[in-house]
Write a structure and sequence with these properties.
single chain; 330 residues; alpha/beta; Rossmann fold; Helicase, Ruva Protein, domain 3; two-stranded antiparallel ribbon; 48% helix
Length: 330
């Protein structure tokens, strides 16, 4: 009986996910390479999660989310985070109207479907925390009134590597709100040549509107129906528990190296991201390879390393690789 249901679900999701190919075709018109980044944006969008992107300037981060918003016919706002930015610049404020002799609300740029929080770690914690309510609760409080945000709502924050001057590390509570932290690198040499040709030719390809925000909300409901077997659930919890109690998973070398592991939010996001990944691959069920494909992005910002780990040049990537190689695959 279950096999029949899975077969039917597989066929349904294969049909429902056909728009993913169309989105990729449109995105590839304006973005050369960076398929990994586009896939992660789609995972965040379909799984109702937010994305933290880390990379040097000039890697098409802004262009990617702006193009995706255009393809979905959604409202897009870009917010440049600077050291002098105030929370009111983000969420809006109350303004006194002399005409009506009362305070009226002026909504900030956060009221959009897609928000690019550019260089989020250039602003102090007070401004970064202004994003927390909107990211977690999908609402904003101005004065005594609370306002619901439009759905779908996706925050893509970019941050420069911490080594760069003039940056503030993001607080753990803020970082944990992001479903994935994606590290992007420079394009390949062939891709760079194509970027060069496109830009010096003066031709600016544009994207077409393929689907609507309502279609994305429907797709989210379908993504949640992707089948997750109990063995896969056990695999997810084993991976997350290995970040907390490495000795229990034959990883004694990491004892004393990890200050804190993934929170329950890590398990939830690992499950949701793997469902979205399976959906993008047009499959109605999650397999271990889906978990492994998204594990680095979901976990890399949720593992706190100790000074001993830094002294021995152990990175979160090393820890995640070792966990994935050690935890038994169902």
């Amino acid at each position: 009986m279950i096999e029949i249901n899975i077969r039917e679900l597989n066929e349904r999701i294969n049909q429902e996910s056909s728009f993913i190919d169309l989105i990729n075709i449109e995105m590839n018109k304006v973005i050369v390479g960076q398929k990994y980044m586009i896939d992660r944006l789609l995972i965040g969008l379909l799984a109702n999660g937010h994305i933290l992107l880390e990379g040097v300037p000039g890697l098409a981060k802004t262009l990617a989310i702006k193009s995706l918003a255009n393809v979905i016919d959604a409202k897009f706002n870009r917010i440049q985070f600077t050291p002098d930015l105030l929370p009111a610049d983000l969420i809006g404020t109350l303004i006194y109207s002399q005409k009506t002799e009362e305070f009226i609300v002026r909504q900030g740029p956060i009221f959009a479907n897609f928000i690019l929080a550019d260089e989020i770690n250039r602003s102090p914690a007070k401004v970064q925390s202004a994003l927390l309510e909107s990211m977690q609760e999908l609402q904003v409080t101005i004065g005594e009134q609370t306002y619901k945000l439009q759905e779908p709502f996706l925050v893509m924050a970019t941050q420069n590597p911490i080594e760069q001057e003039g940056t503030y590390p993001l607080p753990e509570a803020q970082v944990d709100r992001f479903m994935m932290k994606v590290v992007i690198t420079y394009p390949e040499k062939d891709e760079e040549k194509l970027i060069l040709r496109q830009n010096i030719s003066g031709t600016n390809p544009t994207t077409n509107k393929i689907i609507s925000p309502k279609d994305i909300l429907k797709a989210r409901d379908v993504v949640r129906q992707v089948y997750l077997d109990e063995k896969i659930e056990n695999y997810i919890t084993d991976i997350v528990f290995a970040t907390r109690f490495p000795a229990d998973y034959k990883l004694k070398k990491f004892v004393g190296m990890i200050n804190y592991g993934g929170s329950p939010r890590a398990s939830i996001n690992l499950a949701l991201a793997s469902k979205a990944y399976a959906f993008i691959k047009r499959r109605g069920y999650v397999i271990p390879e889906d978990i492994r494909a998204v594990a680095h992005d979901v976990l890399r910002h949720r593992i706190g390393l100790s000074y001993e780990a830094e002294a021995e040049n152990i990175t979160t990537e090393d820890v995640i690789n070792e966990i994935l190689n050690t935890v038994e695959v169902p």
